[in-house]
Specification:
The chain is of the alpha/beta class and 299 residues long. It contains eleven helices and eleven strands.
Length: 299
Amino acid sequence: MKEIKGNVFHIQKYSVHDGHGIRTIVFLKGCPLRCEWCSNPESQSTVPEILLTVESCCGCGSCHKVCPTGAIRADSLKWLRDKCVMCRKCAAICPTKARTAAGTEMTVSEVREQVMQDNVFYRTSKGGVTFSGGEPLMQSEFVTALAESLKKDYMRLAIETTGCVPWKQAERPLSMMDEILYDMKHMDSSMHKKLTGAGNELILSNAEKAAKLSGNLIIRVPVIGGKNNDEENIGRTGAFAQKIGAKEVHLLPYHRFGESKYKKIGREYTCEAYTPEDKEMQRLKELVESAGILCRIGG
């Protein structure tokens, strides 16, 4: 039987975030949202992309010589992205890794092989594997197949999701998770659409259904200064989390760690926001807890 393949853009080992214990995070490409502050812009598109780190380019011209379409000019830095056919020859030959590919088709067996290399760490720390992205539920068939394979070895699984897919597509993979990290950006649908490109009706509906599947659903809110950090929104988030029976809420302060990636894929980082100070984060934490639910700052 032909194995199911997924489009993976990164496998991060020995992570202590995004779930309990030591974990391996499998990042999958494709996301229905376009959040202004996205820290993984290379995850948004469903197709592979080439990232160019200009500072690492030595100007050897190797990429120009192997490019079949003439997308790369002789000086290596002039790049016509619309002519790129993603053959990845430039990334394969680049001696300094200035050009790298984001997005590789991998089978369940190939991902499983990498994941299981660190099985001893999962068992000693009660960790496991976390599916992330992008939006991993856009590749629900692959997530389900990989989860089924890993569950045979009693692997603890978690998923980081926005829930912005049809429930029929989400239910099976979510039912297999030991921990659901459910990202929520804003409680007001019109503001959610302004910030992410989509309303939140499907997200809120699926959150309620997901909470019934799991007693270990955690709502995570990226707190973006000037965007969603007002008391009304955070208060409504806490009340919603308590209503649906979420385990707790995590407030994640905004950061700009992914800003450099935009230049690498030929895009401009346009988010104008600030990182809330500790005092403000503590105030928002107390506001969530006033709704009767545990709240933590950070993951």
